[in-house]
Specification:
Structural class: alpha+beta
Distance between the termini: 33 Å
Largest sheet: 5 strands, antiparallel
Strand order of the largest sheet: 1-4-5-6-7
Shape: globular
Number of strands: 7
Radius of gyration: 16 Å
Amino acid sequence: MNNALCGADCTSCGYGKENNCKGCADSLGCPFGKQCFIYKYIKIGGMESYQLFVKQLVDEFNSLGIQGMPAVSEMYAMNGAYVNIAYPMPGGESVKLLDDNSIYLCNQVECDFGDGEMRKCFGLVAGMDFLLVSEYGENCTNPELVVYRKR
């Protein structure tokens, strides 16, 4: 079952298999019950327009100038369940900012600065109208929200 318009490898998505995902083509862009903005973008503007949109996102992430974050060149469609991390807030509570049932464009890059003891990564997530960058340790431990902004 790899009927994703965007080229995502749906066959390797364990979340989709567990949640009876029918893929974007069979569900008309609603694989988890919500309209996928990527599907809609491709249906309206075509694949070339979508690729330009992804390039624009890459450029926006690279222009943030986050210290230690290497340049990115790709974004990948992923289910929110894989990237919806709970971030600690100043009041002590932890808050998830994304939706497990939505699809986002994402990437993960290793931080250029390492302390020699712990590997740190940056997680990049984009929706149609926002950019999110977080920093975390292995297996998403100790996540910190670096940037969350409307675009």
